[in-house]
Amino acid sequence: MEKKSTVRVAAVQIAPDLTSREKTLARVLDAIREAAAKGAELIVFPETFVPWYPYFSFVLPPVLSGREHVRLYEEAVTVPSAATQSVAAAAREHGIVVALGVNERDHGTLYNTQLLFDADGTLILKRRKITPTFHERMIWGQGDASGLKVVDSAVGRLGALACWEHYNPLARYALMAQHEEIHIAQFPGSMVGPIFADQMEVTIRHHALESGCFVVNSTGWLSDEQIASITPDQGLQKALRGGCMTAIISPEGKHVVPPLTEGEGILIADLDMSLIVKRKRMMDSVGHYARPELLHLVMDGRATAPMTDASLLSTPDIAPTRTKTDGELPLDRNADQRVAVLRSPAG
């Protein structure tokens, strides 16, 4: 795929519809059309935007959050589904790469999931937040590292993290080591107050500098009416304001356009991809500025599963091509079982 010299991107800051997945999805499709009409080749939506971020869990105690939690289950997205197919169709129709945050339902568990659709509508990445933060642990399950990967797209190499995953330096380094060119960052927005926006800005600007990539960050927005619908307590309502920093950052750590910190809107910016080499010529964290013989990351990128069918495991008399040695990670999840058998007295 030919490298692009310039990529036009869009970062969206809009409010979900807190009553319906389909109504929020309609807002997504409208924003895709609007951004595409302005020439955008990549559009980024906020964290778990469809159907909505679980703001209720930040202000309601668990004993009072059951009804809203169940409602989130009912409106959540399965992958694939008619909801994801409609986004894929919009991406294909408008020739635009789409980064969408969803509450994904997988049977009895919800996950904070990031979906990346290429410009031809292909779902090129589905990843789940590896560790939900604080109140979120009552809402979502944990993801694994199988989604910590950078994928090729029509606009370049894309990596993605959600919210406070950006405080996990090893998760960020995993994407840096795979040479991401545009990093997708998604936060909920409308939470905690101005300090959240300040911290978010520091985090995404630092990642751009350290990775030598562009960062496109999208945060959500809540209206006063929506905040009141979540909690009538005016003191708690303060916790659902501020914290918005929709922004587009260059590899030099600078805002490409002024950030959006209040209200709804779509930021549009042209990314000069030559700035990546300009930055990395001076400091490549995973290349000439690295010392892998001293410090390097070992990541277990295998997908986890709650059950393994024993009939699919290798039998004891069929030796694997190579087994692990002490202190070495197994080659695959089945290797754990094989090594145990081969080392048993009866083996």
Automatic annotation (TrEMBL):
Start and end residues of each CN hydrolase domain:
7-273
> What Pfam families does the entry give?
CN_hydrolase (PF00795)
Recorded hits in InterPro entries, A to Z, give: C-N_Hydrolase, C-N_Hydrolase_sf, Nitrilase, Nitrilase/CN_hydratase_CS, Nitrilases_CHs
Q: Which residues form a coiled coil?
A: none
Q: GO terms for molecular function, please?
A: nitrilase activity
Q: Which residues form the signal peptide?
A: none
What family does the Swiss-Prot or TrEMBL record give for this protein? Belongs to the carbon-nitrogen hydrolase superfamily. Nitrilase family.
Spell out the protein name for this chain.
Aliphatic nitrilase
Lineage runs: Bacteria, Pseudomonadati, Pseudomonadota, Alphaproteobacteria, Hyphomicrobiales
